[in-house]
């Protein structure tokens, strides 16, 4: 069935050969990606369960969710690599199966698990990918863009994780795409490599490019994304700017603590009544308080803990993050580790 | 306008990438180029033509043995030795001697009739002993010995080795890299670009042809230098058959690799496909040894067609027009395998 899908698509795209130029010089629509009611099942397991998205042209949009939430499946449907079981998807105002070739010319794609050929050099790899596109950047330009000029003659197999990931992005940038899909671009990278890659993506944005990325790092979503959709179990459970989403918590500080032994139930109730506390919930074996005023909440919390003669084993405060939003929405954490 | 930013046509770039990948893998280079030469060399030494080799016989230690031994030793072409009775059977079994003569009147010849050399030894010994006993030959025939290049085992073997190598590199070279690209999700990444899928497969076949040239040249130059193996037909016809064979096995390689998800799976499939051809298609010994009922099946195998074609050109000097059946079999395998592979190919 999958084969049939792409064969038809190819036959059509060759017939639409001359439309390509019309399509690519057409103004970019206000929505770079729009999909409604996407559904995908794998052998009875529902990976995507009726998912709607709208990505505006020029923004960096993040799909944030834990592993197995359906992020990769969603992105692969939008990339035209998987046919959905139901739903409708429009990318750059075009549809898979009608404008396959024209779409491929204008998308930049980085897949989560691709291992490029170890025995080719950086430059040879970029040149190979460049050859598939009718127009785009020169190989030299791409090397500079991702900062791999000094590594041009190194074999891919000899690159560090961060360099390899930048090469993967380089392969996605060879055609000067209008829309860049990135699936977990920084997973497994050290902080420095991660920042390097973020810088690269920011430069792409500044030149007017649109990015749709998936991540399970909330720092990444907060640092890079204009808007975020939080995905859980194949559905979008919240959408907005990181700031808006955090604001839904009602306050922007989180105080976490744990005590030796169990937290008594009536302590939880007492905490909810403390001044400035918006929410109290169990978290990672401890308790998290969402509050607007740390300087009021912490002394009050210490007073309550003292009243119950409990011994604090941990006390920490941080600015509320998307992680806290996810926990508030699902009761679970983004990452298990 | 298409500029491709310093890159060439995708088919050129894909073929180049494939060539580089191969040449940067020392093991692959060894198996394709060095191994067949080593094999040809070893087999050529083992089966080299000896001019008039003697027959090796033993005389069992008993009364009258000395006189027999003297007679045999003075006859040309017989290498005789004395053995105690306890050791004659072991020497026969191991092939140290081909025949044992037990003294007596008349003497007894002890040998294994299924061994051609033993039957030969019996004739030579009998002739020598009869002559010594006074038998007169009616006449003595003149011999014409055929030991010219072109009629030896090594001459027959070289085209078969070449055929086997073309099969092996076609299947491994294409199948292995494609399955590897699939397990690394590289195929999936490639189809996320506007790359034309048939061009990817085509590049594999083209890269094969470059290797083929080197492969054929390496083995044939070696065979010519080391054994003076002749080329009776046209070199162009020979190369044309080799090329057709390479394309045919390239197609088979693509087909075997078209669905497999793991290296283990594709290795199994390839061995399964190659094993019958190693045995049946006349690489090391003639396929005429197999029963008549399976001959049509043997002739339909691509390696049989390739080996027969290569031998017909090289050893019999036949032109291409006389090789219709072989060309037909190879072309059919190639076309059918390639089209089925394209249809059922798993890109993800």
Written description of the protein model:
The complex is a heterodimer of chains A (337) and B (348). Chain A has helices at 2-15, 19-25, 71-78, 100-106, 122-131, 139-145, 161-173, 191-206, 218-224, 242-247, 265-272, 294-307, 322-330; strands at residues 31-42, 45-56, 60-64, 86-91, 107-110, 179-183, 210-215, 227-232, 235-240, 253-259, 277-283, 286-291, 312-319. With 337 residues, chain A is an alpha/beta fold. Chain A folds into two domains: 2-245, Rossmann fold (3-Layer(aba) Sandwich); 250-319, 2-Layer Sandwich (Alpha-Beta Plaits). In chain A, the strands form three sheets. A six-stranded mixed sheet of chain A has the order 5-6-7-3-8-9, sandwiched between helices. Chain A has a four-stranded antiparallel sheet with strand order 11-12-10-13, sandwiched between helices. The radius of gyration of chain A is 23 Å and the shape is elongated. Chain A starts with a helix and ends in a 7-residue tail after the last helix. Chain B folds into two domains: 13-46 and 152-344, no CATH class; 55-132, 3-Layer(aba) Sandwich (D-Maltodextrin-Binding Protein, domain 2). Chain B is built from 13 helices and four strands. A four-stranded mixed sheet of chain B has the order 2-1-3-4. In chain B, helix 1 (10-23) packs across helix 8 (197-227). The longest helix of chain B is centred in the middle third of the chain and has 31 residues, at 153-183. The model of chain B has no long low-confidence stretch (mean pLDDT 88). Chain A binds chain B through residues 2-3, 6, 10, 79-81, 101, 104-105, 107, 109, 111, 113-117, 119-120, 124, 127-142, 155, 171, 174, and chain B through 1-10, 12-14, 16-17, 20-21, 24-25, 181, 184-186, 188-195, 197, 343-345, 347-348.
Key features?
A: 337 residues, alpha/beta, Rossmann fold, Alpha-Beta Plaits, 13 strands, 27% strand, B: 348 residues, mainly alpha, 4-stranded mixed sheet, 13 helices, elongated
